Amino acid sequence: MKEPLLEGEGLYKLIPQRNPIVMVDTFFCADETGAETGLHVQSGNLFCEGGLLREPGMIEHVAQSAAAFAGYAPYTRGEAPKLGFIGEVKKFKIVRLPKVGEFLHTSLRVLGEAAGVTLIAAETKVAEEVLATCQMKIFIKED
Amino acid sequence: MEKNELIAKINETLADEFEVEVSDITPDANIKETLQLDSLSLVDMVALIESEFGVKIQGSEMVKVQTFQALYDFIAERTA
Predict the structure, then answer these.
(1) What is the C-alpha separation between B35 and B19, in angstroms, rounded?
(2) A135 to chain B, minimum CA–CA distance in Å?
(3) Which of A87, A88, A112 lies at the smallest CB-CB distance from B46?
(4) DSSP string covering A42-80, please?
(5) pLDDT band at A87 (very low <50, low <70, confident <90, very high)
(6) Rounded distance, CA A112 to CA A49, Å?
(7) A16 partner at 20 to 30 Å CA-CA among A39, A84, A90, B25?
(8) What is the DSSP string of B14-50?
(9) Across the interface, which of B43, B48, B59 has its CB nearest the CB of A137?
(10) Cis peptide before A98 (omega within 30 of 0)
(11) Residue B20: which of B9, B33, B6 has the closest Cα?
(12) Sorting pLDDT into bands at 50, 70 and 90, what band is A143?
């Protein structure tokens, strides 16, 4: 596995969320084509129930991964993250829910951009097992 | 690919993605109205054209492509 660029509260430089709602704790890499993030599923997680990370938590993890991706470029320029919005979540497929103790590794890939909206494909894995896939539209509020 | 084949593939791809009947897609029909595109779904069209036909289209170019005939011509020119 790649060495993370940012971990834990280091992600606060990229996303506006704060504990207990933070759903991404590792940022591996990013370029203009996509990014990779991660999350350690812990028992105290707000979205865990019965030892599993529930569906809203999966969606929130992908959403915050996208937010971290959007925040990374401004961060490298020494700028504050820009405000971003999720326009749509579609084709969300969950193969199984992650268990407490597992580590989610999410890959984001840019599929296209138009009119300020970016379409991203996300794939969440535990080790080599694909747990979920989706597409998400995000747009960033420019200054 | 012959242009007729290309047009058929474009029509089938769009009908499948945007959940309309292939018969609704005619050369002179307006793309946005036929596929019920809004500002959010424009990016779906851009991503679909790139993934299915290998043609990169900028959002600003997409806005100018109003009819299916214009779209067929745009993709045909770039895949020739």
Answers:
(1) 8
(2) 10
(3) A112
(4) -TT-TTEETTEE-HHHHHHHHHHHHHHHHHHHHHHTTPP
(5) confident
(6) 35
(7) A90
(8) HHHHHT--GGG--TTSBHHHHHT--TTTHHHHHHHHH
(9) B43
(10) no
(11) B33
(12) low
B17, B50 contact by CB (below 8 A)? no
Tokens coding B26: 């005619």
The total number of residues written for chain A in this structure: 143
Is the pLDDT at A50 greater than 70, yes or no? yes
Supply the pTM of this predicted model: 0.83
Which residue of chain A is at minimal alpha-carbon distance from B56? Answer: A112
B22 residue type, one letter: V
Residue scoring higher pLDDT (B40 or B26): B26
| Residue B41: Cβ within 10 Å count | 21
